[in-house]
Amino acid sequence: MTPSFDFLADDQASIDTLLHDVCEQAIDLLAGMPSRPVAGGISPAAPDDTGNGARAALADFTARYSAGLAASAGPRYFGFVTGGVTPAALIGDWLASVIDQNATGSADSNAGALELETLARFRDMLGLPDAFNGAFVSGATMANFVGLATGRQWLGAQAGVDVAEAGVAALGPVRVLSAGAHSSTVKSLAMLGLGRQSLQRVAALPNREAIDVAALTEALAGAPGPCIVVANAGTVNTCDFDDLNAIAALKDRFDFWLHVDAAFAGIAAASKRYRPRLAGWEAADSITVDCHKWLNVPYDSAVALTRHLPLQAEVFRNQAAYLRGEIEPGNFLQLTPENSRRLRALPAWFALRAYGRAGMAAIVERNCDQARWLGERIAGESRLRLLAPVTLNGFCFAPVEGDAAALLARINASGEVFMTPTVLFGQNAIRGAISNWSTTPADMDRVWAAIEGALLG
């Protein structure tokens, strides 16, 4: 008979050495990040036994999974819009796990005060007025969900209906207008019961992803009643911006809820060079800004901002005798979809406290310069076609001849860089975004060499 052994008690007794070992492994991982293949995907070996303690679990993870994980925190991962992790944000994230707060804003902790301070620092960095309050959520999808849910409640108020109480059926058909709403917005419409078909695509400007304001004006004039407008501040393919000033001006003529999806490009407001592109977003009713993108904090983190906190609370309030029921900034239990939420604000607090607006502006401007550098080389290569001007930190291109998917596969197979496929203006293409604080000119040279090598087949 195998003797019983309390592995949990043993792990607790040796927690200092376990954490030291993990720290050493993390240091090695971070040190090797610039040289390891950017994309992983190695299939793990067969699983080992379970129930034999944390040290055995760490060894099993290291042997079977570690090498196959993507180096998405590294300097040449250009897939999606993925930031890295600054040292300060990493400290904050580790402490968030150690402290292990259920950050609802309850009276037993000052976690709510920390989140409010983080939101104030965030607002200040972005140049937004104090009228905006909000909360940390898991990512842009949930931030868009929160903004649109609050917009849905506003639509109900215009019709004399409390949608949160009566249900979405009492609201009737809803119209959501946008030129290029992100897929997370479409997903949110499905989750909210508004339906994907509630989205009406408005024409974009020629060879742009930005909305044609004249077409939006016409759509608003033809709407049967109040509606929701989703404006983009940074599209995924070309980093294009809707004219937020012009859209905001339409609120003088039409009744609509303005939601600005600034998932990654909202952070560009930290830079004086790029803040003018977001002019007008202060008139929005709700705003999405991601943190695990350009703020370079660990997944998962985003901020949902609104000027209509009471409406947001009508949607998300949670009534129970043992819970605080006040509707106020800081009582996040009443403002977010989650009843339980980690102290997501702490990594962002560390990043904002450590580097401030100037530090974030430097990251933004450096990444944009790197994207422009790459765009110039793509434009100068006769075998490639740059499909849109590089105006921020993203780029989009295709081969003049041949299949974009095949070229992308060769580029990614190099292990030097990872980018993703897309379709732009009806053409299959390759896109990427540079959002990592640690990307260097040497990394950009390696990326360009990988693209040139892939062109040779």
Automatic annotation (TrEMBL):
Keywords: Decarboxylase, Lyase, Pyridoxal phosphate. The modification N6-(pyridoxal phosphate)lysine is found at K293. SUPFAM superfamilies: PLP-dependent transferases (SSF53383). Coiled coil: none annotated. The keyword Lyase applies. One of its GO terms (molecular function) is carboxy-lyase activity. Its cofactor is pyridoxal 5'-phosphate. Pfam families: Pyridoxal_deC (PF00282). GO terms for biological process: amino acid metabolic process; carboxylic acid metabolic process. Belongs to the group II decarboxylase family. PANTHER family: GROUP II PYRIDOXAL-5-PHOSPHATE DECARBOXYLASE (PTHR11999), MIP05841P (PTHR11999:SF70). This is Aspartate aminotransferase family protein. It comes from Denitromonas iodatirespirans. The lineage of its organism: Bacteria, Pseudomonadati, Pseudomonadota, Betaproteobacteria, Rhodocyclales.
